[in-house]
TrEMBL record:
SUPFAM superfamilies, per database record: Nucleic acid-binding proteins (SSF50249), P-loop containing nucleoside triphosphate hydrolases (SSF52540)
Organism encoding this protein: Virgibacillus pantothenticus
Keywords linked to the UniProt accession: Cytoplasm, GTP-binding, Hydrolase, Metal-binding, Nucleotide-binding, Ribosome biogenesis, RNA-binding, rRNA-binding, Zinc
Subcellular localization(s) per the UniProt record: Cytoplasm
Amino-acid positions noted as binding Zn(2+) in the UniProt annotation, renumbered to this chain: C246, C251, H253, C259
Protein name per UniProt: Small ribosomal subunit biogenesis GTPase RsgA
Entry binding sites for GTP: T112, K113, M114, D115, G165, Q166, S167, G168, V169, G170, K171, T172, T173
Major localisation: cytoplasm
Similarity annotation: Belongs to the TRAFAC class YlqF/YawG GTPase family. RsgA subfamily.
Length: 292
């Protein structure tokens, strides 16, 4: 028996990396009976049954997991959002941030295509300051400029990283810029739709600069399926850290008097648009139809 990490799942096979070797494994039938699916990123115990082949016997406890894309034990998510083509949208970025925070994954924000949006740099530097004030790492970059690569390498070392973002923002292009030998398939922007075509078909962890990076199809759903209204505030760090200062315990930060969050918005300590998104997401979760 050996231990390793699943680095790729494809056509019913799980490719497990252990001590520098990769084994093509099948999952045991017991997983199917228990409705358990091994995920890329899982630490597993497996039995070697032939040359570079084996059977997964046990899936170790997960630190976290995502459903779409299906991946486990992620340290950080680099959220890639483009300045243009598709145009930047704070609501979309905050949706990604809330989803990532809800899974206890550390977010990093990359604004791409800044070379095309140079005339708008002041606006994006303002957004950068807003998100840095919350505590996030935020980088403005163009994938054409190789001087950004040392910065990218710094984030990837010793981490398992998911690259997240809507189609067309340049996720795969970004990976190719980091390591041209990957020759990953990149998609073209569909001018008529204003978004990219999905080109990445399976989930795989790629070794990169002392870390592992998931090249995934991105988040195919940005709905808050598993999040409750009581958990939402914890997914906004600037709200979470001030909640104890509200007069009423269990304050929703919407209609209650003497709310520390609303006061912080008035004082300019919390960005207006961040609070507006909190209220919008709160109402969305509240109105969500129950799933059975």
């Amino acid at each position: 028996m050996a231990k390793g990490r699943i680095i790729k799942a494809l056509s019913g096979f799980y490719y497990v990396e252990s001590n520098g070797e990769v084994y093509q494994c099948k999952g045991r039938g017991v997983f199917r009976k228990k409705n358990i699916t091994p995920l890329v990123g899982d630490m597993v115990t497996f039995d070697v049954s032939g040359e570079k082949e084996g059977y997964i016997l046990e899936i170790h406890e997960r630190e976290n997991e995502l459903v779409r894309p299906p991946i486990a034990n992620i340290d950080q998510a680099i959220i890639v959002t483009s300045a243009v083509e598709p145009n930047f949208n704070t609501t979309l970025l905050d949706r990604f941030l809330v989803l990532v925070e809800s899974k206890l994954i550390q977010p990093v924000i990359f604004f791409t295509k800044m070379d095309i949006a140079e005339q708008d740099r002041d606006r994006f530097e303002s957004y950068q300051r807003d998100y840095q004030k919350i505590g996030y790492d935020v980088e403005l970059l163009s994938v054409k400029h190789t001087d950004h690569l040392s910065m990218l390498k710094r984030y990837l070392k010793d981490k398992i990283t998911v690259i997240a973002g809507q189609s067309g923002v340049g996720k795969t292009t970004l990976l190719n810029a980091i390591d041209p030998t990957l020759a990953l398939k990149t998609g073209e922007i569909s001018a008529s739709l204003g978004r990219g075509r999905h080109t990445t078909r399976h989930v795989e962890l790629l070794p990169m600069f002392g870390g592992l990076v998931a090249d995934t199809p991105g988040f195919s759903s940005l709905e808050f399926q598993d999040l409750t209204v009581s958990e939402l505030a914890d997914c906004f760090p600037e709200i979470k850290q001030r909640t104890a200062n509200c007069k009423f315990r269990g304050c929703t930060h919407i209609k209650e008097p003497k709310c520390a969050i609303k006061q912080a918005v008035e004082n300019g300590e919390i960005a207006d648009y961040r609070y507006e998104h909190y209220v919008r997401f709160y109402e969305e979760i509240k109105l969500r139809k129950p799933r059975y």
